[in-house]
């Protein structure tokens, strides 16, 4: 517990400097949308973006965890029915896996585009 408190204190000490910027209404709206999607504050989002840290959206994380949960339920159905619906459960698991793969590829592509934009 003391180690956690020390880490928080060290982090607070690091965050002493301020940067102020002006934004147009449309820029602020875009940042507000990004904050809502990522679940971050303005300063956290700005800090991560300025330092080229990948920002994961809560939606992506939620979708991936739901896909894992559904895959587990399908496996449970397959085991409980002793494979009675094996062709159906196999197809459903394949579809879930394909969707998860597509989502992961989109996230990787967005991450690489973000790095290209931020590289001087």
User: What is the general shape?
Assistant: elongated
Structural class: mainly alpha
The DSSP helix count reads 5
Note the beta-strand portion. under 5%
Largest sheet: none
* Gyration radius over CA: 21 Å
Q: How many domains comprise the coordinates? A: 2
End-to-end C-alpha gap: 41 Å
Order of secondary-structure elements: HHHHH
| Beta-strand segment tally | 0
Mean pLDDT: 77
In helices, the fraction of residues equals over 70%
* Model regions low in confidence, pLDDT < 50 over at least 5 residues: 115-120
Provide a descriptive summary of the structure in words.
With 120 residues, the chain is mostly helical. 77% of the residues lie in helices and 0% in strands.
Layout: helices, strands, pairs:
Layout: H1 2-14, H2 25-38, H3 42-50, H4 58-80, H5 86-118
Task: Produce a short descriptive summary.
The protein is mostly helical. It is elongated, with a radius of gyration of 21 Å.
Provide tags for this entry:
120 residues; mainly alpha; disordered C terminus
